[in-house]
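Notes from the 1:1 (GR / supervisor)

We went over the backlog. Supervisor wanted to see one worked example end to end before approving the batch request, so GR pasted a single chain during the call. The sequence is below; no edits were made to it. Supervisor asked that the structure be written out right there so they could see what the output format looks like.
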Amino acid sequence: MKSGETFLRVRYKDTDQMGVAYYGNYFVWFEVGRTEFFRGLGMSYKELEQNNLYLPVIRASCQYKTPAHYDDLLKLVTRLSALSDVRLTFTYDIYREEKLLAFGETEHAFINQKGRPVVLRRQNPFLWRLLKDKVHESLESER
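Structure output shown during the call:
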């Protein structure tokens, strides 16, 4: 799995009176993409937390090209684009059919339950190798 694909439908509650998806929902959809990305690796966010590993967002951005509307079926593509000892970065593309509607990025820190930074390579070598392989696959597929 070089990237994760998730399909979402824009719900009525996600829109304004014009039927346009509210801009803040894109960050919620990014979270869905990250969660499904980890599931695709064979683990859940819940399992990470049970192993005293948390991934708070420390930076987030989104660029909107074309609005999503009520009842649109969206495809969210999530990629792990960068990994360091204490951080990782995901990129996201949101499509309606083949049209790119928005793209974004979130950066996360690895911390423990006390909010202290964690060096993933030491705390969870298995996850470190798994994520490192995914970043390498993503870079290879871009060539």
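Supervisor's comment: The domain at 4-142 is CATH 3.10.129.10 (Thiol Ester Dehydrase; Chain A).
Batch request approved.
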